Each structure stands twice: as structure tokens, then as C-alpha cells.
Please model this.
Amino acid sequence: MNEFLLVIHRDLTSVDAKPSPEQMQAAIKPFQDWIGGIAAQNKLVAPPKRWDSDGRVVKENNTVINGPYAEIKESIGGMLIIRANDYDEAVEIAKGCPILQWGAKVEVRMAVVTA
Amino acid sequence: MEERELIPKVFRTEYRKIVAVLCYLFGIEHIEIAEDIVSDTFLAATELWSIKGLPENPTAWLYTVAKNKTKNYLKRNSFFEQKLSADIKYLTQKTEEIEIDLSGKNIADSQLAMIFTVCNPAISSEAQVALALNLLCGFGIQEIADAFLTNKEVIYKRINRAKEKLKEANIKIEQPTVSEINNRLDSVLTTIYLLFSEGYYSTGRRPESQNTILRKDLCEEAKRLCYLLIENASTNKPSVNALFALMSFHSSRFDARTNDDGETILYEEQDETLWNQELIELGTHFLNLASTGNIVSKYHLEAGIAYWHTQKQDSSEKWENILQLYNALLILEYSPIAALNRTFALAKTNGKKEAIIEAEKLHLADYHFYYSLLGNLYTGIDNKKALEHFQTALNLAHSSADKATISKNIDRLLN
Model:
């Protein structure tokens, strides 16, 4: 088994980034069910935390910019660590992420085991 | 109450109190001396009471005799002067002045100290439960052997080995400090919950009448120990209240879950008028008390699940809550049973088809419960597959109660 980092990237600047309470509610259940399903397979290493959308970006020369990193369209919306045999299995799990249908992208990275 | 019934009851409740106080006084090194003195006291009581009848106040009689026997022992044994005296906590100037304090406060303090001593990770959880039954609950070796479906020798050895280990590790019998409570409360709660589960889930080959009484006793003892922690301000934490709530909810179904022949009655088929409403209310009360602070323990989540199971009526709200609680429980701590139950709840909320896909990802091929779940999910969707799964479950199941349950499912499918 290997560990994989799943990073969910979302566009935090668009209108969709500020969902209504109803939209939030509708989005939370599939997300919780997705995570619960991974945990039920004993493949959840580190559950996602909730991050605010405030954020700071630190650059060279001590430059600090307000807001999450937004030079590319997608900022980090969430992160979790899972256990999977290989990329195929990790990608299969990532495909279950319900936020994909709202335009999010999930980056999958395998942890390098240090000898 | 009849004398015949009263004596064992007095013996059990008073035995554990006096043992706790004397162990607390003597320290772990001399735990056998404490036990000997208490055994002597009860032997004297049995002999005298069988001739002269019960004294007016049996408890006071026992306390007086135990105090005198302790003082006599201390006077008699010169070794006390060199060895034991160094360990005794409330040592005064002279042996004669040693106060053997059997006040309610000191009994409670001693029992709390003993809980933290017995539930020490230095000994295996199996040994912790046996030792807890012996020292904290006043169960005899034979009763513990009955509870574990084994013989006296096994339990005797298990308990003695556990005591030796506690001595070797030099575990102190003392009031736990705040940091010890924070570090060790979890393992104390684990032992209490194990004790409860031993009573609640064990399906033994004992004679049924004896079986039910013994199992209820174990559950009651677990609740009593948990309540001792609630009564003490320093251990009255949200997770302790949550565990008490959980055990109350579970025990509310005790009378409804087996028939007169000792066969298991499934949740769906239970007569809910037999569910004990007082215990459900008690559970709700303590679950509310548990809802302070910002730590959600697994006992909170399990108590929440158990609460929703006290609502017999199926509703989407009920199963949605149960599903989300199982999701949270699995995120906190994986267990195969939670994974299976979560998938059952998923079928109730999101439909059987989705649940089948999720179930087949679980890879729990060693569990008959896994095949029972699949059998259940396929029922009405593909009855042939359902039957195959139930039959696999039947082959894997060991206990007669589990086999009977699975056979019932198969019969239902065929008719």
C-alpha cells in the first residue's frame, strides 16, 4: 500500500465559490458520504479539514498578498491522504469526489517512501 | 428482602468497597493482604450470621470487623514496621492510631484510584476486565470464569499474572492527577466498554436463566464503574457521560433482544413496548450532559447512533443521521463492524444499488456479517445472489445464535 495525497482545486474567485446555504447543504452530504466510503474501506489516512477562503500568499522579498493563491484559476479547496495500491486505485477513489461536478479538479500525488 | 438473597448482595457490594479502601491504604505490593483480611471478615460473617442471624446493620458490622482485623494484623506482624509502614499513606505515629477510613468519601476515592490502577495498559485488556470484575466489582473467580466461558484455573492464573505485572511495574494506587486523567481516561473507558460488551454481546452455552442474569450483571457493573467516574468531578468528562449514555441506550433493549429460549430477536422484529423507556430517558439525559466542550469522542458518535436506534419508526431523518454518524465514526477510527453498519445505513438512505457497489469495495471476506449484509442488500434485487451470500455467511458463522439468524433470513427468502 502507498499513500496518496488528494488535493482538491477549486476556483474560489467565481460566483460558484460562494454557494448558498442550500447549495452548501446539498454539497456536504455527498462529500461526507464520499469520505465515509473511503474510511469504510480503511483507506483514509488523514481526513480533510475545513480551510477558510481568506488566505495569504507569501512571495520573495517578504511580499505578502491577501487571498488564496489565485494567479491560476484554482486554489486549494481541500486535502486528504488516502491509502491505495497504485495510481489506478487512487485515481478510482478520486473519481468519486462529488465536487468534480462543480468544476473542481483533484490532483493525485503518491508519497515517496524514503529509505 | 430474604436473608438468602440479601447476604450475597451485601457481600458483593461491601467486598469491593472494603478491598478498595484497604488496597488504597496498603499499596499494590500488599494487595493480597488486603484481600485476605476482607475474605476473613466475610468468612467470620458467614459463620456467625448463619448461627445468630443477620445483625441489625450488616454493613456496619462488616466495617467494624474489617477494621479490627486490619489493626490486629498490623499489630501482629512485625514486618509491618519495616516494610509495609513505608508504603502506608496515612501513617500516623503509632500502629494503633492508623485510621481505617470507611467513610463514603474515602470509599469513593479508593475506588477511583483502583479503577485507574486496574485499567493500566501495563496489563492486557483481557486481564484488565478480569481484574476489574474481581477487585472493583467483587466477583468471585468462579463467576468470572462463567462470564468468560472458561474454568477457574484460567481466571485464577490470569488475575495473578496481572497482579504480578502491576507490582513489577510498580503501579501506584493513588488519586490520578489531572494529566494522568487526560492521558489514561481513554484506556479506562475502553476497559469499561469491554466489560459492558462482554455482557451485552456474548452468546454463551450457559444455561439460559443463569446466562441472562450474569450478562445483565456485567452490564450493570460497567455502568456502575462509569457512574463512579461521573460522580467524581475530576473524571466527569464529556466522553464519560457519552459512554454512560451509550450503555444506557443499549441496555434499554436488553429484555427485548432475546426470547424465552435465549434466541436472538433481530432489531426489526423486537417488541418495542419491551424497550425500557426509563433507560432511554437516562441515556438522553447523559448524552445532553456529554454535549459540552469541542471534543467529539467515539462514544459520542456511538451514543448518537444508539439514540437513533431507540426510535423504532423508520424515517429518512433517522437513517441519514445514523449514516453521517457512522461516516464520522469511521473517519475517527476504522472498524470492520462500523464499516458494515455504515453500508447498511447507506442502503437505507441512498438505496440498495449504491450500497452494493460500496459493500463490494469493503473486502471483509472473513466475516459472516459481510455476507449477511450482501445477502440483505441483494434481497429484492437479485434473490439468487442474495441466497448465495446468505449461504456463505452460514458456512462462516460459528455461534448457534448467528447461525439461527442467518437461517431465518434464508427461510424468508425462499418463502
